[in-house]
């Protein structure tokens, strides 16, 4: 598949950033054009409607998850360790796409909610062969959720719990892997 033109990507980046920073209501076509530094006509050239922008975001998420699953499958540490370590992500493309999609889902976008369910399902399917049973799979998924949640909140307040890093994260991953195999 050919790579989309850079101007189109810049508009999509602006839409995604508005969703992440200000939420679904603020991510209007006008605000997206302004944030991207293009005219409204320039935005409409690439995305004829807000629905088209939203669909492009969901397609971006799908592509990023494909890449994540490929990296998970080829990780020398194994899929479970890779999945847990990458749950402590910060402002990378997959993180931004997930947050932006969650903002759409919070605003009532059914396609975004379904996309998030599908992502979780794809991760579960990739992990399932590497854990002993469904309870072990649930443990890995819930631990990932907790790591992601606490990492997302760690810069804002002391509300979140500690986010293990370095040797502490290594020890946690080793403990979980020993428990789920």
Structure description:
With 181 residues, this protein is mainly alpha-helical. The chain has helices at residues 6-22, 29-36, 40-46, 50-74, 79-85, 93-106, 110-127, 134-153, 166-180. The chain starts with 5 loop residues before the first helix and ends with a helix.
Topology:
Elements: H1 6-22, H2 29-36, H3 40-46, H4 50-74, H5 79-85, H6 93-106, H7 110-127, H8 134-153, H9 166-180
- Taking pLDDT < 50 over at least 5 consecutive residues as the criterion, the unreliable ranges are none
**Into which percentage range does the β-strand content fall?**
under 5%
Q: Give the strand tally.
A: 0
The secondary-structure class comes to mainly alpha
Mean pLDDT: 91
Instruction: Report the helical percentage.
Output: over 70%
Distance between the termini: 38 Å
| Rg calculated over all Cα atoms | 18 Å
Shape field = elongated
SSE string, helices as H and strands as E: HHHHHHHHH
Number of distinct helices: 9
Features:
181 residues, mainly alpha, 72% helix
Summarize, please.
The protein has 181 residues and is mostly helical. It has nine helices and no strands.
């Amino acid at each position: 598949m050919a790579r989309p033109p850079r101007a189109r990507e810049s508009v999509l980046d602006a839409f995604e950033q508005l969703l992440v920073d200000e939420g679904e209501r603020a991510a209007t076509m006008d605000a997206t054009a302004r944030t991207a530094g293009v005219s409204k006509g320039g935005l409409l050239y690439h995305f004829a409607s807000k629905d088209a922008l939203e669909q492009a975001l969901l397609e971006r998420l799908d592509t990023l998850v494909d890449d994540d699953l490929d990296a998970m499958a080829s990780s020398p540490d194994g899929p479970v360790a890779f999945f847990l370590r990458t749950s402590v992500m910060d402002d990378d493309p997959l993180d931004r796409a997930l947050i932006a999609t969650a903002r759409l889902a919070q605003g009532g976008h059914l396609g975004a909610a379904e996309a998030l369910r599908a992502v979780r399902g794809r991760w579960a399917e990739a992990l399932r062969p590497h854990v002993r049973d469904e309870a072990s799979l649930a443990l890995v998924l819930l631990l990932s959720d907790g790591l992601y949640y606490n990492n997302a909140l760690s810069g804002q307040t002391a509300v979140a719990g500690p986010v293990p890093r370095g040797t502490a994260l290594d020890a946690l991953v080793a403990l979980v892997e020993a428990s789920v195999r």
